[in-house]
Amino acid sequence: MASELDFSPPEVPEPTFLENLLRYGLFLGAIFQLICVLAIIVPLPKSYETEGDPSEPRSAEVTRKPKATAPSSNKRPKKETKKKR
Predict the structure, then answer these.
(1) Where is the composition biased (Basic and acidic residues) (predicted)?
(2) Residue 52 class from Cβ within 10 Å (0-12 exposed, 13-18 middle, 19+ buried)?
(3) Taking 80 as the threshold, does the pLDDT of residue 64 lie above it?
C-alpha cells in the first residue's frame, strides 16, 4: 500500500503570456484603486495656487446674477399686462 502512494508535487504548466499579462494588469488595477481611495481619505494641504482660483468663480457668479435678473424682469410686465385684461 505504501508503494502505491505518490508524494511528488503535481505538474503545473508554466503560465502563458496572456496569463502573466492578466495577473500584472490586475495588480496594477488594484494599486490604482488603492491610490484613488487614499486620495479621497487623506486630504492634501492647499497650495498658494489653489487659493487664488476660488476668487475667479466668484466673479463669474457675480456676472451671472444680473443676466438671471434681466429675463425675470421681462416676465413680470407681461404677467401684469395679462392681469389688466
Answers:
(1) 55-64
(2) exposed
(3) no
Alpha helices by DSSP H, the chain = 17-41, 48-52, 55-84
Radius of gyration of the chain (CA): 34
pLDDT in tens, 7-46: 888 898 999 999 999 999 999 999 999 999 999 999 888 7
Separation between Cα atoms, residue 3 and residue 7, nearest integer Å: 10
On whether the CB atoms of residues 23 and 15 are closer than 8 A, the answer is yes
Q: Output the nine-digit C-alpha cell for 67.
A: 443676466
**DSSP-derived secondary structure letter, 6:** -
Model confidence pTM above 0.70: no
- Domain limits of the chain? 15-43
